[in-house]
User: Which sequence fits this backbone?
């Protein structure tokens, strides 16, 4: 029996960190079922762990994209930024009319437009540009999302029963992702600025004084708490953030704006990623700012003079 509009069957293309969190919330809110495909199933080293992770959601772990999409009403693409177009290309031949393909990936409007072109050239499905405007952990399926494209209002109507925080911002593909990319200049940039400032201050033995001075200038923000949170996010997700900044840079160039700050942010995010802090701290990340700074100090010993 086909699922009703209020109980759609869902499929995820990409089921790593964000996908399971979204899926759990949507199932709890009334979604009929969830099927999932991820490249991890293709690797014998990660297959069993990924199948167990998907099954625990509970989602049906699928061996192919075609299997995941076969019975779905709504497809959510939650891969990494650099794989968004690849995911759309893999999905397109298996999509059918009446399906919605929601691209939640953090990539440039230009890439979203290309992905939409692939989906719409090879199928009768409708592509929707979705921008996820905050972190999924802690918010799940209620994380704020912006939708754009000709089918955005239809997608919003189908998702409305699940209590999601959704706003349609336009009828053109790329409008939602443009807002996301411009916001990321600030959100990822402030992480990089805090990191660079505090690591430099730590090397000079004045981190507490610098943080206290920032606190005095902007007293309405708890800067220690903010720095602890964002340094933790960098430690765990620096590589993904750096890749996202490549998409932000592409967006700015398309707007005839040189991405000076964005490129610096990407370099600092990747610098943190290359220190291997994710391996050191595990999924929980550093507990304190001091833990983060100590780990950076240990992993990146500056050259000694002489």
Assistant:
């Amino acid at each position: 029996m086909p699922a009703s509009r209020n109980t759609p069957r869902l499929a995820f293309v990409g089921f790593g960190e964000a996908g399971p969190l979204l899926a759990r919330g949507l199932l709890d809110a009334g979604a009929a079922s969830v099927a999932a495909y991820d490249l991890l199933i293709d690797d014998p080293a990660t297959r069993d762990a990924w199948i167990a992770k998907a099954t625990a959601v509970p989602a049906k772990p699928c061996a192919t994209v075609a299997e995941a999409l076969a019975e779905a009403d709504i497809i959510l693409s939650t891969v990494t930024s650099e794989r968004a177009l690849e995911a759309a290309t893999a999905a397109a031949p298996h999509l059918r009319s009446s399906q919605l393909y929601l691209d939640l990936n953090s990539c440039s409007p230009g890439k979203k437009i290309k992905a939409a072109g692939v989906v719409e050239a090879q199928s009768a499905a409708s592509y929707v540009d979705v921008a996820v405007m905050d972190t999924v952990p802690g918010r799940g399926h209620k994380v704020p999302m912006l939708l754009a494209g000709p089918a955005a209002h239809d997608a919003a109507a189908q998702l409305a029963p699940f209590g999601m925080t959704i706003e349609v911002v336009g009828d053109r593909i790329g409008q939602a992702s443009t807002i996301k990319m411009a916001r990321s200049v600030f959100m990822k940039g402030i992480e990089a600025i805090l990191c660079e400032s505090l690591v430099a201050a730590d090397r000079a033995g004045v981190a507490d004084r610098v943080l206290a001075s920032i606190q005095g200038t902007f007293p309405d923000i708890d800067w220690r708490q903010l720095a602890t949170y964002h340094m933790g996010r960098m430690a765990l997700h620096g590589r993904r953030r750096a890749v996202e900044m490549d998409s932000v840079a592409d967006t700015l160039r398309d707007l005839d704006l040189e991405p000076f700050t964005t490129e610096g942010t990407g370099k600092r995010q990747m610098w943190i990623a290359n220190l291997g802090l994710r391996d050191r701290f595990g999924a929980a990340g550093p507990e304190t700012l001091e833990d983060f700074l100590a780990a950076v100090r240990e992993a990146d010993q500056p050259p000694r003079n002489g």
In short: Residues 223-254 form the longest helix (32 residues).
